[in-house]
């Protein structure tokens, strides 16, 4: 799985990580670690439940303090890297 930080941010805010993991063939823990390491904000516990129940939710913005939005994040079975 290879994408820019911006694409990863959009992806993790569009569906639960367990679903992303199933579709991409990597573990959801690897995706979570890549998000944390690459400073990509991700939904916290309870976010998707609120979405399901029609509650108001806030999507956090992608910050570009340390990495650029165009930096590429690679996630595979052995972990993740950013370039």
TrEMBL record:
<protein>
    <submittedName>
        <fullName>Uncharacterized protein</fullName>
    </submittedName>
</protein>
């Amino acid at each position: 799985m290879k994408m820019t930080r911006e694409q990863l941010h959009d992806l993790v805010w569009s569906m639960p990580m367990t679903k992303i993991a199933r579709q991409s063939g990597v573990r959801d823990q690897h995706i979570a670690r890549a998000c944390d390491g690459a400073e990509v904000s991700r939904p916290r516990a309870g976010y998707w439940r609120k979405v399901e129940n029609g509650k108001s939710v806030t999507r956090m913005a992608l910050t570009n303090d340390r990495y650029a939005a165009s930096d590429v994040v690679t996630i595979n079975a052995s972990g993740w890297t950013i370039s």
